[in-house]
Specification:
Length: about 375
Amino acid sequence: MSVWSDVVGQPAAVAELGAAAADPAAMTHAWLFTGPPGSGRSNAARAFAAALQCRYDGCGECAACRTTLAGTHADVREINPEGLSIKVDEMRALVQLAARRPATGSWQVVIIADADRLTEGASNALLKAVEEPAPETVWLLCAPSDHPEDVPVTIRSRCRPVHLRSPSAEAVAGVLRERDGIDPEQARWAASVCGGHVGRARRLARDAGARARREQILGVPTSLRRLGDAFSHADVLIRSAEGEADELRASRDGAEREELAVAMGAGGTGKGAAAAARSAKAAERDLEKRQKSRATRTQRDALDRALVDLAGFYRDVIVAASGAEVPLTNPDREREIRGAAAEWGADSALRRLEAVLSCREGLEQNVKPRIAVEAMMTALHRG
């Protein structure tokens, strides 16, 4: 199995990266992977890191490939921010580590999975590292686009771009069938409604709860008959997102607190016990802060997934109302979509789509979720 097996529907990018891994003359010290959600930016970066460490250009079988793909290679670090942003202190520490010589591999590789979450200070710290790179260090940055709002121009100009696209429904269905062992019919359906997002297709195919949440949110547009419906639907949506965040807290927060207590020597006695207790309190406060930020991110991500579903529905209504010959994002809801198109028309559907996009933008700007969602639902009702 090649390291590229998880990079779905990206033949041009795989060819470019494979050539760079095989030929040192084609290498550069910083790469920027861009593409829509679900296009496999992180998978491509991880596969490239494995190919760089592999003596056989990405065989997928050697120890270097297996440890890199598993996230345990000593010279490959992957940053997946769980909170709202990547702070400057975290980036400075990472830059210092990245400047070291490789311990076992050919390169010191750093993957930043969400480079668009870098704060201004963190971006400045990273800029110096990519301007004056260590000779054996490679930075792999992943972001939705190379727009300045996602990646500063100063960093983008020092990276080699790799543009990914949304994989086709056929490619996604093939991965679900062949690699994940999902029933062909279920795989075909999930691939047809995922919008080219492989992870979302896998979640819909495997998780009955995810399918139920999708059905719930896609039922909203045609059930907003009264103003009161707008507030009730907003409440359901907020509670659902909060429930996802609470599930994560229940499964992880307690275990993390117990691990920290053990690491800080809870219950110890002796001369250093008082000092250790003070250090433990500070560490607990830091952990609580990180957990709160992670819960906020989880809630917003859950809301955003719902908003993407809503946006897809209204996009389909515009397509149907305008008579465009393009595939629907939600082909399994074609009857409701065409009914809404006949009732609303393209202009009203466009206003509704703009309300959903405005809500997403508000959440990114830290508007209170309930306020943003209630405003959106009111606009959707009004049309």
